[in-house]
Hints:
Layout: H1 2-24, H2 27-34, E1 40-46, E2 48-49, E3 51-52, E4 56-65, E5 70-72, E6 85-88, E7 94-100, E8 105-107, E9 116-119, E10 122-131, E11 138-148, E12 150-151, E13 160-171, E14 178-179, H3 182-185
Parallel strand pairs: 3-13
Antiparallel strand pairs: 1-4, 2-14, 4-10, 5-9, 5-12, 6-11, 7-10, 8-9, 11-13
Amino acid sequence: MQIRRTITILSALCVAAILVISSTGNTQEGSALQNAAAIVKPQAYVSLEPVPRGQAFQVAVVAEIRNGYHINANKPADEFLIPTTLTAQLPSGLREVETVYPPQQSLKLSFSQTPLLVYTGRAPIFLHLQAANDAPLGATTIPLVLRYQPCNDTTCLPPVKIPISVTVQIAAAGASTHNLHPEIFTSKKP
C-alpha cells in the first residue's frame, strides 16, 4: 500500500515537472502563440478625405490573421462559439448605417464533428457610416473595438478585445474630396 502511494506521488511530481518544463521551454515562439492579442493584426482605413457633412463613407478594419489560426465568423455555426464583432463608439455627428462582415469560410477541424464558419488570412470588416449635416468640422476620432477568439486546429485561446481608432476629417457640405485606399474599398465583395 505504501509503495503504491509512493508511486502515485512520484507520478504526479513527474507530470508536474513535465508541464513546467514544457511551458517554460518553448521560449519566445511558445509565449507568442499563447498571446491571443498577437494572433490578429488589425488595421483601420477611411474611404474618403475629407468627409463632407451629409456624405456617406466607410471605415474598414482589415484583420490579418496569423497563418495556422482562424477566428469565428460573425455568425458562427454553433451558438456556443464566440463571434467576431466590430463595434464603434461613434462621436456626435456620425451614425452607423450597417456593418458588413467578410464572407465566412467553412472549415473542418480535428476537434469538431461538423465544419465551423470562420475567417482566415485577411478578413476586412466594413462600417458604412453617414456624416450628419451638422457634424462637427475638423478631425474626429472614432474608437473601435475588435472582439475575436483565435483558434488553431487543436486549441482555442481566450477571447480578446482589441481597441483600434481611426481619424476622419469632417469638412463643410459640398467640399472637394478624394477616395482613399481603393485597393480596400473598391475590391470588397460583401
